[in-house]
Amino acid sequence: MSFLSPIAFALALLLPIIIAMYLLRLRRTEQTVSSTYLWQRMVQDVEANAPWQRLRRNLLLLLQLLFLIFLILALARPFQWVQGATSQTVIFVIDSSASMAATDLLPSRMEAAKARPH
Amino acid sequence: LQLFEEQFLRKLERLAIHSRRALSGQLQGERRSPKRGQSVEFADFRPYTPGDDFRRIDWNAYARLERFFIKLFVEEEDLTVHLLLDTSRSMDWGEPNKLNYAVRTAGALGYIALAGLDRVTVTALNDDANRAKRTLPPRRGKQQAGSLFTFLQNLSGGGNLDLASRLKQYAITQRPVGPLILLSDLMDEGWQEGLRALAMQGFEVTLLQILAPEELDPTLNGDFKLLDSENNSEVEITADYELLQRYQRNRQAWQSEIQKFCSARQMHYIPVDTAYPFEELFFSMLRRRGVLR
Q1: Torsion sign over Cα B213, B215, B217, B221
Q2: ipTM, interface predicted TM-score of the complex
Q3: Rounded distance, CA B143 to CA B153, Å?
Q4: What is the 3-state secondary structure (H, E, C) of B103-125?
Q5: Which residues of chain A lie closer than 8 angstroms to B223, CB-CB?
Q6: Which DSSP state fits A28?
Q7: Cα separation of B186 and A38, whole Å?
Q8: Chains A & B: contacts with CB separation below 8 Å
Q9: Residue A54 has pLDDT above 60, yes or no
């Protein structure tokens, strides 16, 4: 497989940028509190449990990366040489008027025309 | 370093820890006991049986009825006041510091009891291996106030606490029962279980829930990862007005749950804000709630 415009791969530089932005977004200010007892009680009745939440966030990152990878691949226009397997029907139309009997081409124009398609 | 001023202590001496029931003690004191014995307060008559001390026969009754009666009096004994102090790391937090406030409260309550000829025992609820550092065995008399204060001043916050198991253990092992004052923030799953165990053994529980202003009404704003000071659990929040409102509602629901639990078991539940003036707590709030007299 080759690519028509491999220059598009330069866009791959965007991948680390996405990851970096993601890491930056995750970094929250850390704050020590006496107990997370009350906070946990509060969070519990709002959203699902934390492990699933974490997974879902990572899923989003994964999808974004996949999207970018496919986009880059598409922009690079991949192609491949393959053996052509199809044949086409060619219709030859031969003039059969009297002028075809002229002998400027040997043995005659008619015979020469018949010989051509082969 | 002194815990209290002389003047404040003198004012405390006018107070006494209120006990709802007559409980038997160990030594002569100033509390009504269910036992019969010697005091000036008359309790009952009982027919004389051989072997009774005949000095206690009521001769006036004999003159009227020509039968011997023994005159019984109410016994007055001392009371053991149990002070339980949560010194887990979550208590050593807040502005003003919760542990500090709890230590001072325990000191003043202990002093009141000592001044009233009651016994005082203090237990710090933490997992310190050194037993002497976390338990003050029963003390009696005002001259023991010094050792009470020293003990309290040497307490430091740290470690985790399994409230349920510690309270259960205390309920089973500590005798005689008496008024018990628990100073804690109660931020632990096991509070119901622990309090139930104490009530079941006959302790008269007073729960002082000590919370810092920042816990009652947090002032966070923005994205935070909240780290627990005791275990390493963490909660990620995005604090905004709506979330803080929800926290407030949740906190209030929690406290009214405690309130309901306690009033169903005849415990005093007193939430205390560490910003609350200390003297007010003693001379107004605790008296109003019937913990002190």
Answers
A1: positive
A2: 0.71
A3: 17
A4: HHHHHHHHHHHHHCCCEEEEEEE
A5: 28-29
A6: P
A7: 11
A8: 74
A9: no
Which tens digits make up the pLDDT trace of B247-287?
A: 999 999 999 999 999 999 999 999 999 999 988 999 998 98
Would you say B26 and B37 are in contact if contact means Cβ atoms under 8 Å apart? Answer: no
pLDDT category at A39 given cuts 50, 70, 90 is confident
Residues of A in contact with B216 (CB under 8 A): none
The low-confidence residues of chain B, meaning pLDDT below 70, are 1, 128-132
Measured in degrees and rounded to the nearest 5, phi and psi for residue B230 equal -100, -65
Q: Which of chain A's residues have a Cβ under 8 Å away from the Cβ of B189?
A: 37
Candidates B187, B224, B246; nearest CB to A28: B224
- Give the Cα separation of B271 and A62 in Å (integer): 48
pLDDT at A56 over 70: no
Which of A31, A32, A35, A40 to probe the B interface (max B CBs under 10 A)? A35
Half-sphere exposure of B213 (CA within 13 A, CB side): 7
pLDDT of residue B229: 85
- Residue contact B235–A41, C-beta within 8 A: no
Single-letter code of the amino acid located at B260: K
Average the pLDDT over A97-114 and give the result. 84
Q: Is the pTM of this model over 0.80?
A: no
Mutant choice from B100, B228, B243 vs A, greatest count of A C-beta within 10 A: B228
